[in-house]
Amino acid sequence: EDQVTQSPEALRLQEGESSSLNCSYTVSGLRGLFWYRQDPGKGPEFLFTLYSAGEEKEKERLKATLTKKESFLHITAPKPEDSATYLCAVQARSSASKIIFGSGTRLSIRP
Amino acid sequence: NAGVTQTPKFRVLKTGQSMTLLCAQDMNHEYMYWYRQDPGMGLRLIHYSVGEGTTAKGEVPDGYNVSRLKKQNFLLGLESAAPSQTSVYFCASTELQGWSDTQYFGPGTRLTVL
């Protein structure tokens, strides 16, 4: 069964304190792994898509990496505006129309 | 472009009442989805559509029906609402071109069933 597990559930960092969020997945043939940001009361906002192990993508203070079993979202020198819930999702080759989400990591950055 | 819009934004129902949630997208996307989001459980797929006139069941379809009569609209219906359907509902759309499967989400509908 395709599954996505994110850790930790919540993370509190001081401004400027770098860290990583983890997304572990099991899927029967990965088509794509997605990272989204969700602010309170809003819909998820797309950040990255990763397709194969070894791939990396960057956007401002965020960098996403992918292995055969997990993905990391690295946050370098975060600012308070990076506070949000970060969602990971996977799409299997066998059922391209379905995307399975993890329960998210709630990130809080203190000034 | 407005992207993906959802109406209404909030709704309170009594048990047994019915309602329809409307999702509209102006990006000419083929695929549309309905999810529900509950605390600690992430987004769960209710139903989805791979094109006008088609619908399919997702992970948690019971108690919901959908219709995709026009490419730009995807409706989610609750025939007889139950307290277990209290949740935040999100609509999303995707244009599958090669390996570009970015999902665009609407702002959500917060539904409370008393």
Brief overview, please?
The complex is a heterodimer of chains A (111) and B (114). With 111 residues, chain A is mostly beta strands. Chain A has strands at 3-7, 10-14, 19-26, 30-38, 45-50, 56-59, 62-66, 70-75, 84-92, 99-101, 105-110.
Task: Describe the model.
- The complex is a heterodimer of chains A (111) and B (114).
- In chain A, 0% of the residues lie in helices and 59% in strands.
- In chain A, a hairpin with a 6-residue loop joins β4 and β5.
- Chain A is an all-beta fold and 111 residues long.
- The N and C termini of chain A lie far apart (41 Å).
- Chain B is mostly beta strands.
- Helix content of chain B is 0%, strand content 51%.
- Chain B has strands at 4-7, 10-13, 19-25, 31-38, 42-49, 56-57, 65-67, 73-78, 87-94, 103-105, 109-113.
- In chain B, the strands form 2 sheets. In chain B, strands 2, 4, 5, 6, 9, 10 and 11 form a 7-stranded mixed beta sheet that branches. Chain B has a 4-stranded antiparallel beta sheet with strand order 1-3-8-7, with no helix packed on it.
- In chain B, a hairpin with an 8-residue loop joins β9 (87-94) and β10.
- Chain A binds chain B through residues 4, 9, 31-32, 34, 36, 41-46, 49, 51, 87, 89, 91, 96-104, and chain B through 4, 31, 33, 35, 40-45, 48, 50, 56, 58, 90, 92, 96, 99-108.
Q: Name the beta content range of chain B.
A: over 45%
Mean pLDDT of chain B: 92
Query: How does the overall form of chain B come out from the CA principal axes?
Result: globular
The count of helical stretches of chain A stands at 0
Show the helix and strand layout.
The complex is a heterodimer of chains A (111) and B (114).
Chain A (H helix, E strand, L loop, with lengths): L2 E5 L2 E5 L4 E8 L3 E9 L6 E6 L5 E4 L2 E5 L3 E6 L8 E9 L6 E3 L3 E6 L1
Chain B lengths: L3 E4 L2 E4 L5 E7 L5 E8 L3 E8 L6 E2 L7 E3 L5 E6 L8 E8 L8 E3 L3 E5 L1
Parallel strand pairs in B: 2-11
Antiparallel strand pairs in B: 1-3, 3-8, 4-5, 4-9, 5-6, 7-8, 9-10, 9-11
